[in-house]
Amino acid sequence: MTVTEQAAPARTHASTLTATDVVVEFPVGRGQKVHAVSGVSLEVPPGTTLGILGESGCGKSTIGRALIQLPPPDSGSVRLGDLELTELGSRDLRRARARMQIIMQDPVSALNPRRKVKDLVWEGRSIWGHDGETPKDVLVDDMLRSVGLDPDAVRDKHPHELSGGQCQRVCIARALMMDPEVLICDEPVSSLDVSVQAQILNLLETSARSFGLSMVFIAHDVSVVKNISDQVMVMYLGKACEVVPSDEMHRTSVHPYTRLLLASIPGEPQDHPHAQQVSVELPSPLDPPSGCRFRTRCPIATDRCAAEEPRMREIAPGHTVACHHVAVGADE
Description:
Residues 17-262 form the ABC transporter domain. By secondary structure, the chain is an alpha/beta fold.
């Protein structure tokens, strides 16, 4: 049986997405490799949104793609409910991927320029087969309306005839058409105008509630990640530094790097003891520092930070941090 003959995997319940000690490395020749993701763990319960925050090159997009096995991690575990994705063969993995959809950073290049909007939105269903009674055109039009597009105005257009914001809405509609359990958003608003960003963010939030989705939202904008997420995971040079509830992030975050990111927001207070600005250049992921990877830029680093890698540990309910100089109960 070919893929096009298989029935689309029906969603019977929502599952928790869990990653444990995920490692992704890219060889670059001469025995060197980029340490893109180094032992990152995360959990996204059903109906929640995990934001992943960090500078360019920190590995946040790589971990997002590793969750959906594009490409599979070099080591570690990725589970969707009881299903271990890293152990699946190509056939079973394709079926599992139908339960997880990804929205790319550049909406225009993510769409086939030769196809019309109505065919792009229906693409997933055409691959897996549609066995429902509702006609294709009705389902496509309903989905376009749900993402704020007028079906009569866009269904027969090609991507180059739409704005960037409209293309991103088409990408969202295409993903939602598969009725996924998890939506991975890889910087979905960074290439859009500021006025359009708020519309897309509101659409994603509304869609997550309406369709009962879990989301992994990846971005480098602190305010965007904080506002859309339930929890925020801060990454630096392939490592997770801190995981903190988003509504408590400004008040309780304690890792020096998280405080540095918060201090970079215009108008935010700069009086936190760990919010000192640093001018040291970001180290290369080809040769990351020993111990704590942030130590070369950290205002409170000690010899222990160079000799011993800090482990993620819980300092308060729902709040974990990897820093030698943070005490348990620090945000109480």
